[in-house]
Amino acid sequence: MLGIESSEDTKEAKIQMIDQVNRELFVSIEQLGCDVIDVGLGIAALYEGVSRGLIPLPDVPDFLHPGEPQRHRDTEENAEKDNFDPSVSPCLRGSPLFGSIGKAHRVLELLETDDHKYQAIRCLGDGPQALAEVYPEMRDSVFTCGANTLGNPGHSNKLWTFLMPFSRFFGHYSGQIYKVPGDIPENPDPGELKQLFAGVIHEMLQREHFGILCNALSCCAFGFVIFSEGGAGVELSRDDLLLEVLRFYGIETSREELMRFAENFWAQSIDLKIKHGWEPPRADQFPYRVFEAISQAISHPPERCKEMMDLLIDEWKRQAKQIMSKYGYEVPW
Prior knowledge:
- The protein is mainly α.
- The chain has two domains: 11-146, no CATH class; 161-326, no CATH class.
- It contains 14 helices and no strands.
- Helix 1 (11-31) packs parallel to helix 4 (101-112) and helix 9 packs across helix 12 (255-275).
- The longest helix is centred in the middle third of the chain and has 27 residues, at 190-216.
- It is globular and about 65 Å long.
- It starts with 10 loop residues before the first helix and ends in a 7-residue tail after the last helix.
Protein backbone atom coordinates (compact mmCIF):
# COMPACT_ATOMS: atom_id res chain seq x y z
CA MET A 1 0.00 0.00 0.00
CA LEU A 2 2.95 2.32 0.54
CA GLY A 3 4.58 1.58 -2.81
CA ILE A 4 7.71 0.13 -1.22
CA GLU A 5 9.86 -1.97 -3.53
CA SER A 6 13.45 -3.13 -3.55
CA SER A 7 16.03 -0.83 -5.15
CA GLU A 8 17.06 -3.60 -7.57
CA ASP A 9 15.36 -6.66 -9.01
CA THR A 10 17.67 -9.09 -7.22
CA LYS A 11 17.09 -11.57 -4.42
CA GLU A 12 19.63 -9.84 -2.19
CA ALA A 13 18.00 -6.42 -2.65
CA LYS A 14 14.53 -7.84 -1.97
CA ILE A 15 15.70 -9.56 1.22
CA GLN A 16 17.37 -6.34 2.36
CA MET A 17 14.18 -4.39 1.69
CA ILE A 18 12.04 -6.91 3.59
CA ASP A 19 14.45 -6.81 6.53
CA GLN A 20 14.31 -3.00 6.62
CA VAL A 21 10.50 -2.99 6.45
CA ASN A 22 10.33 -5.53 9.29
CA ARG A 23 12.70 -3.53 11.50
CA GLU A 24 11.49 0.01 10.80
CA LEU A 25 7.78 -0.51 10.14
CA PHE A 26 6.35 -3.85 11.29
CA VAL A 27 8.08 -3.98 14.66
CA SER A 28 7.36 -0.30 15.33
CA ILE A 29 3.65 -0.72 14.52
CA GLU A 30 3.30 -3.86 16.64
CA GLN A 31 5.06 -2.19 19.56
CA LEU A 32 2.41 0.51 19.35
CA GLY A 33 -0.16 -2.25 19.84
CA CYS A 34 -1.67 -1.53 16.43
CA ASP A 35 -2.61 -3.62 13.41
CA VAL A 36 -0.06 -3.48 10.59
CA ILE A 37 -2.68 -3.43 7.81
CA ASP A 38 -4.76 -0.77 9.57
CA VAL A 39 -1.81 1.57 10.10
CA GLY A 40 -0.41 0.85 6.63
CA LEU A 41 -3.75 1.79 5.10
CA GLY A 42 -3.88 4.92 7.24
CA ILE A 43 -0.44 6.09 6.13
CA ALA A 44 -1.27 5.36 2.48
CA ALA A 45 -4.49 7.39 2.77
CA LEU A 46 -2.55 10.16 4.51
CA TYR A 47 -0.05 10.24 1.66
CA GLU A 48 -2.81 10.37 -0.94
CA GLY A 49 -4.67 13.10 0.91
CA VAL A 50 -1.56 15.28 1.13
CA SER A 51 -0.52 14.61 -2.47
CA ARG A 52 -3.97 15.57 -3.80
CA GLY A 53 -4.33 18.64 -1.61
CA LEU A 54 -7.19 17.16 0.42
CA ILE A 55 -5.27 17.51 3.69
CA PRO A 56 -3.94 21.01 4.54
CA LEU A 57 -0.15 21.16 4.81
CA PRO A 58 -0.20 22.70 8.33
CA ASP A 59 -1.84 19.43 9.47
CA VAL A 60 1.25 17.36 8.58
CA PRO A 61 4.96 17.72 9.38
CA ASP A 62 7.34 19.34 6.88
CA PHE A 63 8.82 16.04 5.70
CA LEU A 64 5.42 15.08 4.25
CA HIS A 65 5.02 18.28 2.25
CA PRO A 66 5.05 17.53 -1.49
CA GLY A 67 8.13 18.96 -3.17
CA GLU A 68 9.65 18.99 -6.61
CA PRO A 69 10.09 15.51 -8.12
CA GLN A 70 13.50 14.06 -7.35
CA ARG A 71 16.02 14.35 -10.16
CA HIS A 72 18.45 11.60 -11.08
CA ARG A 73 20.40 11.02 -7.85
CA ASP A 74 22.11 7.68 -8.10
CA THR A 75 24.74 7.94 -5.40
CA GLU A 76 24.70 7.58 -1.63
CA GLU A 77 26.60 10.88 -1.32
CA ASN A 78 23.65 12.81 -2.75
CA ALA A 79 21.03 10.93 -0.76
CA GLU A 80 20.97 13.04 2.40
CA LYS A 81 21.22 16.32 0.52
CA ASP A 82 18.34 15.49 -1.76
CA ASN A 83 16.21 13.73 0.87
CA PHE A 84 16.68 10.66 -1.29
CA ASP A 85 15.84 7.24 0.11
CA PRO A 86 17.99 4.57 -1.60
CA SER A 87 15.38 1.93 -0.70
CA VAL A 88 12.86 3.57 -3.03
CA SER A 89 12.21 1.74 -6.27
CA PRO A 90 13.55 3.67 -9.29
CA CYS A 91 10.05 3.78 -10.81
CA LEU A 92 8.75 5.58 -7.69
CA ARG A 93 11.55 8.07 -7.12
CA GLY A 94 9.47 10.82 -8.68
CA SER A 95 7.06 10.63 -5.74
CA PRO A 96 7.97 12.53 -2.57
CA LEU A 97 5.92 10.23 -0.35
CA PHE A 98 5.10 6.77 -1.68
CA GLY A 99 7.98 4.30 -1.73
CA SER A 100 9.94 5.66 1.21
CA ILE A 101 10.50 3.44 4.23
CA GLY A 102 12.15 6.34 6.03
CA LYS A 103 9.15 8.68 5.78
CA ALA A 104 6.75 5.99 6.99
CA HIS A 105 9.03 5.29 9.94
CA ARG A 106 9.07 8.99 10.86
CA VAL A 107 5.25 8.99 10.82
CA LEU A 108 5.33 6.09 13.28
CA GLU A 109 7.75 7.97 15.52
CA LEU A 110 5.22 10.81 15.71
CA LEU A 111 2.46 8.34 16.58
CA GLU A 112 4.56 7.17 19.55
CA THR A 113 4.55 10.65 21.12
CA ASP A 114 1.85 12.54 22.99
CA ASP A 115 2.45 15.60 20.80
CA HIS A 116 -0.76 16.19 18.85
CA LYS A 117 0.60 19.16 16.96
CA TYR A 118 -0.35 17.69 13.59
CA GLN A 119 -4.05 16.90 13.26
CA ALA A 120 -3.68 14.45 10.34
CA ILE A 121 -1.12 12.39 12.28
CA ARG A 122 -3.43 12.42 15.29
CA CYS A 123 -6.18 10.95 13.09
CA LEU A 124 -4.07 7.84 12.43
CA GLY A 125 -4.22 7.04 16.13
CA ASP A 126 -8.00 6.71 15.83
CA GLY A 127 -7.79 4.42 12.79
CA PRO A 128 -7.79 5.37 9.12
CA GLN A 129 -11.53 6.10 9.08
CA ALA A 130 -10.78 9.17 11.19
CA LEU A 131 -9.17 10.79 8.14
CA ALA A 132 -12.55 10.62 6.37
CA GLU A 133 -14.28 12.10 9.40
CA VAL A 134 -11.91 15.05 9.78
CA TYR A 135 -11.35 15.56 6.04
CA PRO A 136 -14.69 14.78 4.30
CA GLU A 137 -13.12 15.09 0.85
CA MET A 138 -11.16 11.92 1.63
CA ARG A 139 -14.37 9.90 1.40
CA ASP A 140 -14.24 10.18 -2.39
CA SER A 141 -10.50 9.70 -2.85
CA VAL A 142 -10.50 6.21 -1.34
CA PHE A 143 -13.20 3.56 -1.08
CA THR A 144 -15.92 4.35 1.43
CA CYS A 145 -18.89 2.38 2.72
CA GLY A 146 -21.29 5.02 3.86
CA ALA A 147 -20.74 8.29 5.68
CA ASN A 148 -17.49 8.82 7.55
CA THR A 149 -16.02 5.40 6.88
CA LEU A 150 -12.84 4.42 5.13
CA GLY A 151 -12.09 1.01 3.66
CA ASN A 152 -9.25 -0.71 1.91
CA PRO A 153 -8.62 1.06 -1.43
CA GLY A 154 -8.31 -1.37 -4.30
CA HIS A 155 -10.01 -4.16 -2.35
CA SER A 156 -13.57 -3.19 -2.95
CA ASN A 157 -16.39 -3.19 -5.47
CA LYS A 158 -20.17 -3.11 -5.18
CA LEU A 159 -20.47 -6.83 -4.49
CA TRP A 160 -17.84 -6.87 -1.75
CA THR A 161 -19.41 -3.84 -0.09
CA PHE A 162 -22.80 -5.54 -0.20
CA LEU A 163 -21.34 -8.71 1.35
CA MET A 164 -19.78 -6.96 4.35
CA PRO A 165 -22.75 -7.23 6.75
CA PHE A 166 -23.45 -10.75 5.44
CA SER A 167 -19.91 -11.98 6.25
CA ARG A 168 -21.00 -12.77 9.82
CA PHE A 169 -22.50 -15.96 8.37
CA PHE A 170 -18.93 -17.16 7.93
CA GLY A 171 -15.62 -17.46 9.77
CA HIS A 172 -12.57 -15.21 9.55
CA TYR A 173 -10.90 -16.71 6.51
CA SER A 174 -13.91 -16.86 4.21
CA GLY A 175 -14.42 -13.29 5.33
CA GLN A 176 -11.79 -12.31 2.76
CA ILE A 177 -14.74 -11.37 0.60
CA TYR A 178 -12.66 -9.12 -1.63
CA LYS A 179 -11.40 -12.32 -3.28
CA VAL A 180 -14.87 -13.55 -4.25
CA PRO A 181 -15.43 -12.98 -7.99
CA GLY A 182 -18.34 -11.03 -9.40
CA ASP A 183 -20.03 -7.67 -9.08
CA ILE A 184 -23.57 -6.35 -8.76
CA PRO A 185 -24.89 -5.11 -12.14
CA GLU A 186 -26.34 -1.62 -12.50
CA ASN A 187 -29.86 -2.89 -13.22
CA PRO A 188 -29.94 -6.55 -12.19
CA ASP A 189 -32.96 -8.74 -12.82
CA PRO A 190 -33.93 -11.50 -10.32
CA GLY A 191 -32.46 -14.27 -12.48
CA GLU A 192 -29.16 -12.44 -12.80
CA LEU A 193 -28.97 -11.88 -9.06
CA LYS A 194 -29.88 -15.49 -8.30
CA GLN A 195 -27.08 -16.75 -10.53
CA LEU A 196 -24.59 -14.28 -9.03
CA PHE A 197 -25.51 -15.13 -5.44
CA ALA A 198 -25.38 -18.88 -6.13
CA GLY A 199 -21.74 -18.50 -7.19
CA VAL A 200 -20.93 -16.20 -4.28
CA ILE A 201 -22.32 -18.56 -1.63
CA HIS A 202 -20.67 -21.59 -3.24
CA GLU A 203 -17.24 -19.95 -3.14
CA MET A 204 -17.68 -18.58 0.38
CA LEU A 205 -18.66 -22.04 1.63
CA GLN A 206 -15.63 -23.54 -0.10
CA ARG A 207 -13.42 -20.95 1.59
CA GLU A 208 -15.07 -21.72 4.91
CA HIS A 209 -14.42 -25.46 4.55
CA PHE A 210 -10.83 -24.82 3.48
CA GLY A 211 -10.32 -22.63 6.55
CA ILE A 212 -11.81 -25.31 8.82
CA LEU A 213 -9.41 -27.89 7.42
CA CYS A 214 -6.55 -25.49 7.96
CA ASN A 215 -7.51 -24.88 11.60
CA ALA A 216 -7.96 -28.60 12.23
CA LEU A 217 -4.38 -29.18 11.06
CA SER A 218 -3.17 -26.30 13.26
CA CYS A 219 -1.92 -24.25 10.31
CA CYS A 220 -2.11 -20.56 9.61
CA ALA A 221 -4.67 -20.08 6.84
CA PHE A 222 -2.47 -17.45 5.21
CA GLY A 223 0.32 -20.04 4.91
CA PHE A 224 -1.98 -22.97 4.27
CA VAL A 225 -2.85 -21.53 0.86
CA ILE A 226 0.32 -23.15 -0.52
CA PHE A 227 -1.70 -26.38 -0.39
CA SER A 228 -4.57 -24.84 -2.38
CA GLU A 229 -5.16 -24.89 -6.11
CA GLY A 230 -3.48 -21.83 -7.59
CA GLY A 231 -2.88 -20.44 -4.11
CA ALA A 232 -6.49 -19.24 -4.03
CA GLY A 233 -7.42 -20.75 -0.66
CA VAL A 234 -10.61 -22.27 -2.05
CA GLU A 235 -9.85 -25.96 -2.66
CA LEU A 236 -6.94 -28.34 -2.19
CA SER A 237 -4.40 -28.44 -5.00
CA ARG A 238 -4.39 -31.34 -7.40
CA ASP A 239 -0.66 -31.95 -6.99
CA ASP A 240 -1.41 -33.64 -3.62
CA LEU A 241 1.28 -31.64 -1.81
CA LEU A 242 -0.68 -31.73 1.44
CA LEU A 243 -1.14 -35.49 1.17
CA GLU A 244 2.61 -35.95 0.75
CA VAL A 245 3.28 -33.82 3.83
CA LEU A 246 0.74 -35.78 5.88
CA ARG A 247 2.30 -39.08 4.76
CA PHE A 248 5.59 -37.81 6.15
CA TYR A 249 3.86 -37.85 9.55
CA GLY A 250 2.31 -41.27 8.96
CA ILE A 251 -1.16 -40.04 8.01
CA GLU A 252 -2.69 -41.73 4.96
CA THR A 253 -5.74 -39.97 3.51
CA SER A 254 -7.12 -38.45 0.32
CA ARG A 255 -8.26 -35.02 -0.80
CA GLU A 256 -11.84 -36.27 -0.88
CA GLU A 257 -11.65 -37.53 2.72
CA LEU A 258 -10.14 -34.26 3.96
CA MET A 259 -12.81 -32.13 2.34
CA ARG A 260 -15.60 -34.45 3.56
CA PHE A 261 -14.21 -34.00 7.06
CA ALA A 262 -14.22 -30.20 6.66
CA GLU A 263 -17.78 -30.14 5.28
CA ASN A 264 -19.02 -32.45 8.04
CA PHE A 265 -17.26 -30.36 10.70
CA TRP A 266 -18.98 -27.25 9.35
CA ALA A 267 -22.40 -28.96 9.23
CA GLN A 268 -21.95 -30.17 12.81
CA SER A 269 -21.07 -26.64 13.98
CA ILE A 270 -24.21 -25.19 12.32
CA ASP A 271 -26.30 -27.95 13.90
CA LEU A 272 -24.87 -27.06 17.31
CA LYS A 273 -25.75 -23.39 16.79
CA ILE A 274 -29.30 -24.36 15.80
CA LYS A 275 -29.68 -26.47 18.95
CA HIS A 276 -28.71 -23.39 20.97
CA GLY A 277 -31.48 -21.39 19.31
CA TRP A 278 -29.70 -19.78 16.37
CA GLU A 279 -31.43 -19.23 13.07
CA PRO A 280 -30.38 -17.30 9.97
CA PRO A 281 -31.57 -13.69 10.34
CA ARG A 282 -33.89 -12.10 7.84
CA ALA A 283 -32.90 -8.87 6.13
CA ASP A 284 -35.47 -6.93 8.16
CA GLN A 285 -33.59 -7.97 11.31
CA PHE A 286 -30.52 -6.02 10.15
CA PRO A 287 -30.35 -2.42 11.41
CA TYR A 288 -31.77 -0.21 8.67
CA ARG A 289 -28.63 1.98 8.79
CA VAL A 290 -26.77 -1.01 7.30
CA PHE A 291 -28.77 -0.70 4.10
CA GLU A 292 -28.47 3.09 4.14
CA ALA A 293 -24.69 2.75 4.27
CA ILE A 294 -24.61 0.09 1.55
CA SER A 295 -26.90 2.21 -0.59
CA GLN A 296 -24.38 5.05 -0.73
CA ALA A 297 -21.68 2.72 -1.95
CA ILE A 298 -23.54 0.57 -4.51
CA SER A 299 -26.03 3.13 -5.89
CA HIS A 300 -29.21 1.18 -5.10
CA PRO A 301 -31.96 2.46 -2.76
CA PRO A 302 -31.89 1.08 0.80
CA GLU A 303 -35.12 -0.89 0.27
CA ARG A 304 -33.66 -2.50 -2.86
CA CYS A 305 -30.51 -3.38 -0.93
CA LYS A 306 -32.70 -5.01 1.69
CA GLU A 307 -34.51 -7.07 -0.97
CA MET A 308 -31.19 -8.22 -2.42
CA MET A 309 -29.97 -9.20 1.05
CA ASP A 310 -33.00 -11.47 1.46
CA LEU A 311 -32.18 -13.12 -1.88
CA LEU A 312 -28.60 -13.68 -0.71
CA ILE A 313 -29.71 -15.14 2.63
CA ASP A 314 -32.21 -17.42 0.89
CA GLU A 315 -29.41 -18.75 -1.33
CA TRP A 316 -27.23 -19.38 1.73
CA LYS A 317 -30.08 -21.30 3.35
CA ARG A 318 -30.60 -23.37 0.21
CA GLN A 319 -26.95 -24.41 -0.13
CA ALA A 320 -26.48 -24.83 3.62
CA LYS A 321 -29.49 -27.17 3.76
CA GLN A 322 -27.99 -29.32 0.98
CA ILE A 323 -24.72 -29.73 2.91
CA MET A 324 -26.50 -30.33 6.23
CA SER A 325 -28.74 -33.00 4.68
CA LYS A 326 -25.71 -34.70 3.14
CA TYR A 327 -24.43 -35.47 6.63
CA GLY A 328 -27.80 -36.32 8.22
CA TYR A 329 -28.60 -32.99 9.87
CA GLU A 330 -32.00 -31.36 9.71
CA VAL A 331 -32.60 -27.63 9.52
CA PRO A 332 -35.65 -25.66 10.71
CA TRP A 333 -35.93 -23.57 7.55
